[in-house]
Amino acid sequence: MYKRQEELRSLVECLGNVLSDLESSVLTQYLEGRSYEDIAERLTCTPKTVDNALQRVKRKVGGHLRGREVIDSD
Questions:
Q1: How many CB atoms lie under 10 A from the CB of residue 17?
Q2: What's the rounded Cα separation, in Å, for the pair 49 and 44?
Q3: What angle do CA 69, 73, 74 make, to 5 degrees?
């Protein structure tokens, strides 16, 4: 259980450090179950901007997790 808690802490720390304000706002609202259109309306941007922000979040999280795999395998 401790390893999972450490992984979660590491991910949260990473997200806090690498996500832009827009990416963080989009991710929070997306995780709350809001649609791209609803998020866009709330942030006064386009659904495409929301999609692009989520794609960047996915890449950043993926990079973080790949980096953790390398560390864990050492």
A1: 9
A2: 10
A3: 125
Contact residues for 23 (Cβ-Cβ < 8 A; gap 6+): 53, 54, 56, 57, 60
Distance from the Cα of residue 29 to its chain's centroid? 11
Which pTM value belongs to this model? 0.75
Higher pLDDT, 10 or 32: 32
CB of 26 closer than 8 Å to CB of 55: no
pLDDT in tens, 41-69: 999 999 999 999 999 999 988 887 777 66
Main-chain phi, psi angles of 19, to 5 degrees: -85, 140
